[in-house]
Amino acid sequence: MQKRQTQTKTIIKDSLASLLLEEKFEDISVSKLTRKSGINRGTFYLHYIDKYDMMDQLKAETLAQLTQILEDTNLNPKATIKAALDYLKNDFTFIFAISKSSFTDFSQTITIFLKNMIENSPMVVSDLANSYHIPEKYALEMLVASIESIITLWIADGAIESTEEMTEIIFNVSYFDKWR
User: Fold this and answer.
1) At 2, is the pLDDT very low, low, confident or very high (cuts 50, 70, 90)?
2) Where is the DNA-binding region (predicted)?
3) Are 148 and 110 in contact (CB under 8 A)?
4) How distant, in Å, are the alpha carbons of 10, 112, 139, 168 from that of 71?
5) For labelling, which of 43, 112, 113, 154 has a CA lying 20 to 30 Å from the CA of 122?
6) Burial state string for 118-133 with b = 16 or more CB within 10 A and e = fewer than 16
7) What are all long-range contacts of 156-162, with beta carbons under 8 Å and residues at least 24 apart?
8) pLDDT digits (tens, 9 = 90+) for 65-121
C-alpha cells in the first residue's frame, strides 16, 4: 500500500512540475493536475487537502531531504554542499519548475537551508566577519546571499555545470576551505 501511495504522489509531483513549466501555480487547478496525472480527483484528495496543501507537503519533503543531508554528521562542509547539489540535480525537473513559481519562493527555501547549514559552523561566520571587519549578522547575510544566488542561477540555467564544479565555485566564493 505504501509503495502505491508513493508512486501516486510521484506521478502527481511530476505532473505538477510539467504544468508549472507551462503556467503559473495559481492557474493550475486540481482538475488540470489530475487529468495530467491520469488519476481521479478522489485519489488526489486522499493525499492532499487541496493544491496548496500539496505544494506545502512537497516543499516540506524537499526541505526535509536537504535537512537530512545537512544533519549527516559523516559529511564535511564540502561533501554536504555537494550532496545537497546532487539532491537538487537528481530532482531537477521538479526543482526547476518550482524555482520558476513565485508561489513557492524557492530562493527563500534555499536561504533557510543555507542559514541552517552555516549556523552549524559558527566559526565560518565569525571568521568571515573578522576578515571583512563587519558585524556577524552582515557576514552571515552576505555569505548566504552569495551562495543562494549561485545556486538559483545554476538551476535557472539548467544545472549545466556538474555538482563538483558548483561545489568548487561555492567554496571559492564562501571561503569554506579556510574552515575545514
Assistant:
1) low
2) 29-48
3) yes
4) 25, 14, 23, 21
5) 154
6) beeeeebbebbbeeee
7) 156/96, 156/99, 158/96, 159/88, 159/89, 159/92, 159/96
8) 888 887 776 778 788 889 999 999 999 999 999 888 877 788 888 888 788 777 767
* Phi/psi of residue 21, nearest 5 degrees: -75, -15
C-alpha cell belonging to residue 133: 571587519
Q: How far apart are CA 37 and CA 9, in angstroms?
A: 10
Write out the three cell numbers for 26: 495559481
Q: What angle do CA 105, 106, 111 make, to 5 degrees?
A: 100
The CA distance from 76 to 121, in Å, is 11
Question: Helix H segments across the chain?
Answer: 2-20, 30-37, 41-47, 51-70, 77-90, 92-99, 106-119, 122-132, 136-156, 163-174
11 alpha carbon, distance to own chain's centre:
19
Q: How far apart are CA 12 and CA 50, in angstroms?
A: 12
| Structural contact between residues 85 and 166, judged by C-beta atoms closer than 8 angstroms | yes
CA dihedral of residues 67, 100, 160, 118 (deg, nearest 10): -30
Grid cell, residue 16, equals 505538477
- For the record, the C-alpha cell of 51 comes out as 493544491
